[in-house]
Design goal:
Strand content: 15-25%
Largest sheet: 6 strands, antiparallel
Number of helices: 12
Number of domains: 2
Mean pLDDT: 92
Helix content: 25-40%
Low-confidence stretches: 14-34
Shape: globular
CATH class of the largest domain: Alpha Beta
CATH topology of the largest domain: Beta-lactamase
Distance between the termini: 23 Å
């Protein structure tokens, strides 16, 4: 699947690069696939820090009228979530960290061949992105993997993290792979929240009925307590705050702004080597989380569209991206904290190679290698996603 995805991405790039030596079709894709894809960096556009070039849709093979209709549709599909977050504790439970006073209206960017071809709404506003933060946390895990901080995703976390969180016979079986696929069945408490999601005060309308735990790896459950355990484990590995890791390894190299924040709960202080650090979260369920603007989201999406490369630098290995976007062993169409479309069920009218980071309020970064697209769409009705992607794809002219 990964080789085919790369071929599709290469074909899209070749269509946009008329100055390349004459070659076409699948043979061209074969010629530049694999490591040779990096040679195309000199022809690809990567937005410099503080800048992002805009193109007319026709300049990148799109119909401007159809794209304008798609954007008008997107603007009409704002989420019903209150502007003031007044529903936060009712949905999720008592807050543990900060939450803004208000959110932006629906807004977004469409990136084609690296260029901005459409923009709407307040794309510069720094807002919480909820569980889209999980895909950033997955990427931090990828950095740890690429740097050899753990040798194998199938290794038990307890092999490299010794803080009591994996001492029980059950938790000792939990691997990095389990954490990243949300199949740990980890048992315990994190920052005042238990793994079981029992009780409306702490979990709001998201509370769950008690159940018997399965073996690690046997059962998929979307569970922020366990994701917060992953975040703490990564903090232990790096020995430095994860926002600093993300900034130095990803966000600064891709030219992100200095406005984004990655926050932890008020009670999530950890002492490591005599220094107090904040352990971050996998979302904004109980406050805190990743607060970011739409442009920085789009840069992150473009990094993944380019297979982890940015201007000749491999920031995240292609091996990690392949692993992160491979369907989980059990559960839904899910990778390493990324939502996939391999079955064509999430988005029936989009390529099965497309995937997304997404959080509450439908804060979404959607990546479509086949059409060389990144679409960031925030604060919308999630049921409208397939229709928007269908319309954007329909605006792409024959190549």
């Amino acid at each position: 699947m990964w080789v085919e995805r790369k071929k599709m991405a290469v074909l899209a790039l070749l269509a946009a690069l008329p100055l390349l030596p004459a070659c076409s079709g699948a043979g061209a894709a074969e010629q530049v696939a694999g490591d040779e894809l990096g040679a195309l960096d000199v022809r690809l556009y990567y937005p410099p820090a503080g800048e992002w070039e805009r193109k007319q849709p026709e300049d990148v093979g799109m119909d401007s009228a159809l794209l304008a209709e798609a954007i008008a549709y997107a603007e009409s599909q704002e989420t019903s979530k209150p502007m003031d977050f007044s529903d936060q504790e009712g949905i999720f439970g008592k807050l543990l960290g900060p939450i803004p006073d208000a959110r932006a209206h629906t807004n977004g960017l469409v990136i084609r061949n690296g260029y901005i071809v459409a923009e709407f709404g307040d794309t510069s506003r720094v807002d919480p992105t909820y569980s889209a933060a999980k895909s950033y946390l997955s990427t931090i895990a990828g950095i740890a993997f690429d740097r050899g901080l753990f040798a194998d995703v199938q290794d038990p976390v307890a092999k490299t993290v010794d803080d009591g969180g994996y001492d029980s016979p059950r938790n000792a079986k939990v691997t990095w792979h389990h954490h990243l696929q949300q199949t740990t069945e980890w048992e315990g408490e994190m920052w005042g929240r238990k793994h079981d999601f029992v009780g409306s005060e702490n979990f709001g309308r998201g509370e769950r009925e008690p159940r018997e735990l399965e073996d690690p790896g046997a059962y998929w459950e979307y569970n922020d307590v366990r994701i917060n355990r992953l975040a703490l484990s990564l903090l232990r590995l790096f020995g430095r705050p994860l926002p600093d890791v993300l900034k130095d390894e990803i966000m600064d190299p891709i030219g992100a702004s200095d406005t984004w924040l990655y926050l932890g709960y008020d009670n999530a202080d950890v002492e490591i080597d005599g220094q107090v650090m904040k352990s971050v979260t996998g979302g904004t369920r109980w406050g805190a989380g990743l607060w970011i603007n739409t442009f920085d989201h789009a840069r992150f999406g473009l990094l993944f569209l380019r297979n982890g490369r940015w201007e000749g630098r491999q920031l995240i290995s292609e091996k990690w991206i392949e692993m992160a976007t491979t369907r989980a062993d059990v559960g839904p169409d899910y990778g390493y904290l990324w939502w996939l479309n391999t079955e064509g069920r999430a988005f029936a009218d989009a390529p099965t190679s497309s995937y997304r980071a997404v959080g509450h309020g439908s804060n979404t970064v959607w990546i479509d290698p086949e059409h060389d697209l990144v679409v960031v769409w925030r604060w919308h009705d999630g049921r409208a996603s397939n229709e928007l992607y269908k319309r954007i794809i329909a605006s792409i002219q024959s190549e």
